[in-house]
Amino acid sequence: MSSALSLPDAQAQLLALAQPLAVETVAADEALGRYLAAPLHARRTQPPADLSAMDGYALGDTDSHGPWRIIGESAAGHPFDGPVAAGEAVRISTGAILPEGAQTVLLQEDATREGTTLTLSGDAPVQGRHIRRAGFDFSEGQALRDAGIKVTPAVLALTLAAGHATLPVRQKPRIVLIDSGDELAADPTQCARHQIPASNGPMLQAMLASLPCTVTRIGPVADTLDALAAALDAAREADLIVTSGGASVGDHDLIRPALEAWGAKIAFWRVAMKPGKPLMVARRNTGDSEQLVLGLPGNPVSSYVTAFLFLLPLVRALLGSGQPLPTQAQTVVTADLGAGGKRLEFLRGIWDGNTVIPLSEQDSSGLHALSVANALIERPAMGAAQAAGSPVRIYRLENG
Ligand SMILES: Nc1nc2c(c(=O)[nH]1)N[C@H]1C(S)=C(S)[C@@H](COP(=O)(O)OP(=O)(O)OC[C@H]3O[C@@H](n4cnc5c(N)ncnc54)[C@H](O)[C@@H]3O)O[C@H]1N2
Ligand code: MOO
């Protein structure tokens, strides 16, 4: 295991290889879920003028207790044309432009209107109350958000409010997933005793569904160099090729020789983590660009965990994310944990909002346990045993 990288080193090396893809400009709503390729600046000021925050009356003074004479109306989209003076009031609605000279907005619940006469019947007016000042949200030319942030629904709304119809983002990565192994059956209903259903490819595709990318699946591919060469050749247009299985040291683990025969260079192989040790990263120069290959271990839980910690961050980095790695949270474990082993370990667990319960089944092929887990509990390599109630770091999975 001496050649295995630590998890942070391996992630850093992988992300250093990830060149964000070319920039394209798309309609703002099509940019949802992608990452800004340039900083976002305001093309306009918001609000563009002082606005009322409530339905009521804009008053020309705040020091009297009325009555006031109502001289007109300012509705949203229909401003009042003219000033309001002391002793005068303008009927105003939420979001409408404050007339020139207005000092405050008197809530309609605090006033009584008879004809054009307004009298105070509740709380007295206070200078400046219920007014949204011009530009409090942002001003024209202001830098709003940095490149690399995700276009969320709120960022989309900000983009439109700031006067943009389009956004620059990175092209969607083209990803090919290759399942390999002679034992894999494509049809789970037709699975002989010597076979198991090929579940990794569909699982990885489903994990990638949360990111903007195009995914094609190939396989299951037989454990021969010729079959793997044909699969890799079919993936020659991809920005990223992801294999699962055949990454270890067995006689039939052919991903490494197949990649080398295809002209790819191994960037690194093996990470000191459990599950996920045989992870492999390679790259192939195609002349004008570079393809990356991520070789995930075949064990389904190992594939899942390495996809969470390497594949999804890599795709985010290709999309230009400024923060591609998942974030951890701290919580408290409900059971005693033994001392850590040689590798950093991720136990599957159930996080209930306050504490995390480690599952009893931790085999790296255990899909039933994985399906009920919603957290990975981090156990440092060679760490001391921990009693129930100890703090632990977790990754939350969108899986529970
Ligand atoms: N002597 C050693 N043996 C193993 C080592 C080692 O260091 N020395 N590492 C072990 C570790 S850790 C892992 S993880 C596995 C992973 O090996 P591979 O990536 O070569 O995966 P395979 O051997 O091809 O398959 C492992 C397991 O997963 C099943 N599998 C594979 N692909 C799929 C798929 N698409 N869908 C569902 N299941 C799949 C496969 O049938 C095997 O059961 O190696 C250990 N061995
Ligand atoms: O590292 Mo392997 O992924 O434990 O089963």
UniProtKB/TrEMBL annotation:
Residues 176-317 form the MoaB/Mog domain. GO terms for cellular component: cytosol. The lineage of its organism: Bacteria, Pseudomonadati, Pseudomonadota, Alphaproteobacteria, Sphingomonadales. It catalyses: adenylyl-molybdopterin + molybdate = Mo-molybdopterin + AMP + H(+). Belongs to the MoeA family. Pfam families: MoCF_biosynth, MoeA_C, MoeA_N. GO terms for biological process: Mo-molybdopterin cofactor biosynthetic process. Pathway: Cofactor biosynthesis; molybdopterin biosynthesis. One of its GO terms (molecular function) is metal ion binding. It is an enzyme of class 2 (transferase). Its EC number is 2.10.1.1. Transmembrane segments: none annotated. Keywords: Magnesium, Metal-binding, Molybdenum, Molybdenum cofactor biosynthesis, Transferase. Its cofactor is Mg(2+). PANTHER family: GEPHYRIN, MOLYBDOPTERIN BIOSYNTHESIS PROTEIN. This is Molybdopterin molybdenumtransferase. Catalyzes the insertion of molybdate into adenylated molybdopterin with the concomitant release of AMP. It comes from Caenibius tardaugens NBRC 16725. Gene3D superfamilies: MoaB/Mog-like domain, MoeA, C-terminal, domain IV, Molybdopterin biosynthesis moea protein, domain 2, Molybdopterin biosynthesis moea protein, domain 3.
